Fold:
Amino acid sequence: MKQNMPGPSTRNLSQLPDVFSLKRLLQSVAMLDAIICPEWAYRYYSFSANWATEEMMGSMRNGEGDEFFVLFNSYGAFIKGFDHESMVASLRLPSEQFYRDLPRPFAACCSEPAFSPQDVTFCMWRLSEAPAWSSARLELAASGDSDGSAHLLSILDCSPDTYRQWAAEYYQREVSPQATIAVYEHRALTDEIVAAINPTTDLASLGEDIAQIGYPT
Structure:
């Protein structure tokens, strides 16, 4: 059953969505966060549909030093993450070890200041024509989440229930299952969907966030 399957991580690259599905998923969780939390600085997930020319970027920051960034361009997607409490972080490995096999279309990512490239415990990528994800080749422990990728990327299992369970803990609120599914399916937002997620906000106030995220209208 799905709940018994290991989630996405550097050990389970096959559990990561394809590039297109990953982009939609990150837009969905960013939109849900925007509805629940009007203050951008306190949001966990964000997405910029116009991060740079022909580039989009999704990210997670927990305010405690853990983060991941996902860059999307015409060549595919790049993921960089950092779990400050992971075993890999304690090793203080040179960041170059994580980027040495990075395909040329993502070369600029390892020096992009916005991605804090020096703070890295895992790195993954997938070219558009590639059949699967790849990750930095490191000698890790035979078991456990030594690089923190399973922990930080757990939201990427494509399950609306995963977001609902996370939001219940982080935001201390229950989120409507039906409304969460609607956002995961990229249905156009309505006042009813927004109110089911957060009764204290409304659709009219979300225009800037919808445009920034690139969520369909």
About this structure: The chain has one domain: 2-213. The longest helix spans residues 19-36.
